[in-house]
Write a structure and sequence with these properties.
By secondary structure, the chain is an all-alpha fold. It contains four helices and no strands. It has one domain.
């Protein structure tokens, strides 16, 4: 049974980006016990970006960068990267502000989770990682 290069790119990019997120977080905190980094959003690199860019890269290499399906994949990648930097990051900052207000007023309300978005640097690294993984998958499966 042959593995789909499209699905392989998606799975490899997600696993590698989340693994790197764990490694970077562990080095930064100097502890290797924070396994939540393996599945939480935010931080370096953007796994969402790496995943959609790896897919778009494989689509472009297999189907052509002038194909309609590449245009759809590139649009999807652009929307996800914009969302990570602008929308999700903003809502994460708002969530952090709400947490601080709840703490200041000493409310008994449970603190909501403030989901983090991404800095432009985290998205850029995710994009570069995605391109590299896309090329690797293309050449390995080609």
């Amino acid at each position: 049974m042959e593995v789909s290069p499209y699905l392989l790119a998606i799975m490899a990019a997600w696993l590698i980006a989340q693994g790197l997120k764990y490694v970077f977080g562990s080095v930064k905190s100097r502890t290797f016990g924070n396994y939540r980094q393996l599945y939480l959003s935010g931080n370096m690199p953007s796994a969402h970006t790496a995943t959609v860019v790896a897919l778009a890269t494989v689509v472009g290499l297999i189907n052509g960068f002038e194909s309609a399906i590449f245009a759809v994949a590139a649009l999807l990648a652009g929307v996800i990267m914009y969302d990570a930097i602008m929308v999700r990051r903003s809502s994460g900052e708002q969530g952090t502000a709400i947490q601080e207000i709840i703490k200041e007023v000493k409310s008994k309300v449970a603190l909501p989770r403030a989901a983090k978005g991404h800095t432009p640097e985290e998205v850029l690294v995710g994009m570069l990682l995605g391109v590299a993984i896309g090329f690797a998958v293309f050449f390995i499966t080609g």
